[in-house]
Structure formats: C-alpha cells, structure tokens
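Appendix B. Chain record.
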Amino acid sequence: MRTIHENDLIQSIHDALQYIACYHPPDYLRALTRAWEIESSPAAKDAIEQILYNSRLCAQGRRPICQDTGMVVAFVDIGVEARIESRRGLDELIDIGVARAYTNPDNPLRASMVSDPLGARRNTGDNTPAIVHTRLVPGDRLRVRIAAKGGGSENKARFTVLNPNASLADWVVDIVPTLGAGWCPPGMLGIGVGGDAEKALLLAKESLMAPIDMATLLQRGPSNRAEELRIEIYRRVNDLGIGAQGLGGLTTVLDVKLLDFPTHAASLPVGLIPNCAATRHIEFELDGSGPARLQAPRPEDWPEITWRPGDEAIPVDLEHLDREQIQDWKPGDRLLLSGRLLTARDAAHKRIVERLERGEPLPDGVDLHNRMIYYVGPVDPVGDEVVGPAGPTTATRMDGYTETLLAQTGLIGMIGKAERGSEAIEAIRRHRAVYLIAVGGAALLVAQAIRAARIVAFEDLGMEAIREFTVENMPVTVAVDSRGDSIHASGPAQWRGRFGDIPIVSMPG
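Structure tokens predicted for this chain:
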C-alpha cells in the first residue's frame, strides 16, 4: 500500500493549474507554428502570429494566455493499492488546490464559476468547484489529468445519437460550421463515440487530454477505423476554409481526437467538444514521494516570431470618432485604436437594458454616445500592470441586447471575438454601426495596449463590471461593416476547398 499525502495532491493541483495558465503544451506550439508557416490567408496568418507571440510573452512573464482561465476539469485514476492520507474527500482536496491556484497573489487567475446557475449566478470567487471524474485502477499511484476549459469552446459542445449506419464524418463536417468561431480556432476537436449520452460526451472531453500527433498519423497512415476517421475529419474540416478566428484560411483544426466505447446495437451516441487556441492541459502522477515536479518548457519551444502591426493598419482616434468616420471601414480592415472605450459583458448589458426599459439614466461614467464597447472580463492586474490579460469574449452572447443599445444610447461600435448573429448584423446595418474583433488567445498582447483602467459601474459584478480603458494602438479587425457585410461569411467562402492542395509533408505537426 502506497500513501499519498493530501498536501502533495493540493500542491500539485495548484502548481499544475498555474503552469497550464501560462504555458502552451509544446506539441500545440509545434503544430500551430507549422500552421502559421503554411497559411496563405493574410488575416488568418496575422491571427496565428498574434497567438504565438502572445504565448511567448505569457511564458516569459508567467501570466495567463487567455483572460478566460477556464473551469477546472480533472480526471483522477486512483490505484487500488494507493491511499490518500486525509480526512477530507478527494473533491474537497482538489478544490483546495484550485482555490489556491486561482487566488495566488503573484499570478491571480480569473474566477469564472458561478453558483445558483438558474438564479443569482453569483461568482464563487475562487473558481471552485472543479469538475472531477474518478476511476479505481490497478496499481499503487495517483494519476491526474487536469485541464482548464474556457467557456467559449465549452459552449460549443454538441451531442447527437446517429443511426448505426450513419456517417460520423458527415455529421461532424455539417456541425462544425454551425459552431461559429467562438471556440477560437485553430484548436482541436474531441469526439466521443459509444456508451450512452453521458459516456459519449465524457469520452470527447477525455480525448482532448492527449497530445497532438496528427503529423505522425498522416506520415505513417491509419492502422484502424478510428484513425481513418480522424484523418478524414481533419482534412474535411480544414477544407471548410473557416481558418483562424473564423477569418477564412487553411487551418481550422490542428488535430482530431477520437475515443470510443461499446454501445447498444440500436445506437450510435456521439459527443463533440472543441478545444480552443488557449489549449490548457497537463498530466502528473503521485507516488508518495512528494508533489509533482513540472518541468517548464524550453525557450526554444517557441518560434522566433515577434508580432508587429502591418503598415496597412489604420490609426483610429477614439476621442474624436463619430458615425460618419466609420462608414469607410470594410471587413478585413486592420485598425489600431487609441483613446477611451468602455467594457461590458452579459451581466452589465442586462443591467443597462433593464435601466433603459424603466426609463432610468445610465450610471455616471457610462456615456455611450459615439463610443465603443469592448466585450471583455479581464484578469486582475499584478505589479505595475493597469489590467491583467484582457482578450475578447464571444460576441454572440450580446446579440439580444445590440438593437436596444444601438437605438437608444448612441453607441457606434462593439469589439469582441467571433461572428455576430443575423439579428445583430441587421441592427448594425440599420444603425450604420460597426463590429470589430480582437484575437481570442492573445489576451496579454491586447492588455499591453491598455494604458489605464478604472471601474465606472457595477463593481459588484467583479470581472463583469463596466470599466473604462484608455488604449494605445489596440489591434482589431473590422468584422462587420456599417453595410452589414461580415468577414465571417466572406472569409471562409474565399478559402473553402483549398486545404486539400497542401501536401501531406507540410501538414501541421
């Protein structure tokens, strides 16, 4: 019987979560670098370049890759000959480690978990509880696979039950375009097949813990049906032309993972869960000799890429911007914003609209006339930072509020990530406004453009409070122009069908 001490498990959970918040896995960096090398779409290549540069900045500064530092998911295999020396339950021990990791004063991570999900939705303050899956297995050790899963990609999870003779690949290829770009491609697709509904989704989540090995698989060829499907889906999804951030390009997924399990003869349950550009997972094993020892990646694991805005980027003075000036902007135009803008996410939008519906004035400091709103919930700052990593959140969650704000407040622009729905695009066209995007997965790079930050309203909402940012050369791209034309429609259409022209030897890996 081997004894695992509770403090070793708690410390290992803390260390692992701090580690994956700041370090991309080397296999992801290698695959993304190859995707950057072969990318022909200027917009997608620029987005990948920002993600890679941001990754190196985060590793050097030990700061989070993305402002959404995720909900914690742990797969724990307990050897039948191992015992945990503790009076606490396993879930409680893991939650202690999570709380310590997310409230670490040297590198605080954003707490995103809310309790009473159908009611008050109050932030728990320390990102607990974790979602824990346990198994008793042979052996005398404790194996932990842990991930921090962002809401943008988790919200795109899908489930279906296919007829046993239906095409899994066809279903995936049909579903992926409906996910939009809120999951921040390029990333991975995790697919679980078999069991029941619960098992299929669990397999999909678990499959994302495996390292990227598509290049190896392509070179040696498939050895079973699952590997054949992985290759088919990988090629067909990339041939959709969705590309990085949905801008249109050659690489949408770096790998496709698939796990299966026996199922009922009448069923083919399928779960699909994407992983975003902020891929965060790690594995460690405890044998009673102390906490896990996590080796930091080597500097050479990052490509020598230094992102700079191109000469074509248009400087924009937010202090003197009006509706007429934005009429010349076109989808794909790259802008550098300087001046003041306000931030707001779901909860703040809800309160603003409720005030407008009651005929009440907006809070002091929330003047939206000829202003822009940035959809963001930043990480708390440390040291001399004015704000922590502050990348965009998925804009479609604000679609239902867009008409009201554009019609009643004088708002002329919004900044987020991913596409807008048809309702929001029509509101943008009708009010001659614009929608801009920042790169999801480049949160620290964006934060470097923020020179000042202050809370102006709804402080009780924590990371969802309304802030005023003063920015200097904040990089964004026009996604929807004042005529309602969207790059998330035109970009993929331009690049659809072109991935098949890339030789196998040049595939990401």
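Further analysis of this model is presented in Appendix C.
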